[in-house]
């Protein structure tokens, strides 16, 4: 019975390796919920778990030519999932440590005018970065971050699939991270 599922996955992985989008979509539909649930069980929030699913399948698509058809696709996915969850957890720990450090060291040195100027500069920079995004990414990013709409609400408003909205939002965030890092 297990060999049947491995063979079925192997066929889809072989097709995916050649760039077949239908095979990719089948594998996504088969495993996305499992990856999401695994992420949630490991204490990620809803949005973070969705990000893990998106990042995971983006990595699969980007590295499709190096997939090994003879190995278990399920095990491969779980290995990548574990890695992504660890990265997100580390990021959260670093953020909490930084906030604790900042609160303890900066509270007595606080300079409201300087803070306001820095905040204004960051706000201006972030607005200019958002303006540089492609139109669809910018629109979806603004609807999500400024209008506080869910992915489903955005999809209904724009009359596109939720998956399309998620992809554009992921790409917008990635573009913004790249721009802000520069």
Shape: globular
Distance between the termini: 51 Å
Structure summary, number of beta strands: 0
Counting DSSP H or I runs of 4 or more residues, the number of helices is: 8
Strand content: under 5%
Average pLDDT level: 85
CATH class of the largest domain: Mainly Alpha
Protein name: RNA polymerase sigma-70 factor
Keywords: Sigma factor, Transcription, Transcription regulation
InterPro entries: RNA_pol_sigma-70-like, RNA_pol_sigma-70_dom, RNA_pol_sigma70_bacteroid, RNA_pol_sigma70_r2, RNA_pol_sigma70_r4_t2, RNA_pol_sigma_r2, RNA_pol_sigma_r3/r4-like, WH-like_DNA-bd_sf
Pfam family, one: Sigma70_r2
Protein model, in words:
It is built from eight helices and no strands. Helix 1 (2-17) packs across helix 2 (21-41). By secondary structure, it is mostly helical. Helices cover 81% and strands 0% of the residues. The chain starts with a helix and ends with a helix. The chain is globular and about 65 Å long. The protein folds into two domains: 2-89, Rna Polymerase Sigma Factor, Chain: A, CATH 1.10.1740.10; 127-182, Winged helix-like DNA-binding domain superfamily/Winged helix DNA-binding domain (Arc Repressor Mutant, subunit A, Orthogonal Bundle). It has helices spanning 2-17, 21-41, 46-62, 73-106, 112-131, 135-145, 151-158, 162-181.
């Amino acid at each position: 019975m297990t060999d049947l599922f491995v063979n079925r996955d192997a066929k889809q992985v072989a097709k995916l390796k050649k760039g077949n989008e239908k095979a990719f979509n089948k594998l996504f539909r088969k495993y996305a919920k499992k990856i999401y649930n695994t992420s949630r069980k490991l204490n990620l929030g809803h949005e973070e778990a969705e990000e893990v699913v998106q990042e995971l399948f983006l990595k699969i698509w980007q590295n499709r030519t190096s997939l090994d058809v003879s190995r278990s696709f399920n095990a491969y996915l779980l290995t990548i999932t574990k890695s992504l969850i660890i990265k997100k957890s580390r990021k959260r720990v670093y953020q909490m440590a930084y906030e604790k450090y900042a609160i303890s060291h900066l509270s007595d040195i606080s300079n409201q005018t300087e803070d306001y100027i820095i905040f204004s500069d960051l706000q201006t920079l972030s607005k200019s970065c958002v303006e540089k995004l492609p139109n669809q990414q910018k629109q979806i990013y603004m609807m999500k971050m400024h209008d506080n709409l869910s992915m489903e609400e955005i999809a209904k408003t724009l009359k596109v699939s939720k998956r399309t909205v998620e992809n554009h939002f992921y790409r917008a965030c990635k573009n913004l991270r790249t721009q802000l890092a520069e």
